Amino acid sequence: MKNPLMKRLPRELKSEVGKYLVIFIFMVIVIGFVSGFMVASGSLLKIYNESFEKYNIEDGNFELYAEADDTAHEAIENDGKIRIYENFYIERETKEVDSTLRIYKNREEIDKVCLMKGALPTGKNEIAIDRMYAENNSLDVGDVLTVGDKELTISGFVALSDYSALYASPSDMMFDAIKFGVAVMTEEGFNAMDKIGFHYNYSWKYNNAPADDIEAKKLSEDLLEIISENAIITGYIPMFSNQAIQFVGDDTGKDRMMFTVFLYIVVAIIAFIMAITTNNTITKEANVIGTLRASGYTRGEIIRHYLAMPMLVILVSALVGNILGYTIFENIAENIYYTNYSISTYVTNWNADAFVRTTVVPVILMFIINFAILAYKMRLSPLKFIHRDLKTRQKKKTLKLSTKIGIMHRFRLRIIFQNLPNYIMIIFGVFFANIILLLGMGFPQLLDKNQQLISENIICNYQYILKAPIETENENAEKYCAHSLSTTSDELKSERVTIYGLNADSNYIDVAIETGVFISEAYSQKFKVATGDTVTLKEEFGTTEYSFKVEGIYNNPTTLAVYMDRAFFNETFDNDEDYFNGYLSNEKLDYIDEMYIATTITEDDMNKMARQLNHSLGAIFDLFYWFGIVMFMLIIYLLSKIVIEKNAQSISMTKILGYNNREISGLYIVSTSIVVVLSFLLTMPLVNTIMKLVCEIMFMEFSGWIPYDVPISVYMTIIVSGIIAYGIIAFMQFRRVKKIPLDVALKNVE
Question: Looking at the predicted structure, is the pLDDT value of residue 489 above 70?
Answer without folding.
Answer: no
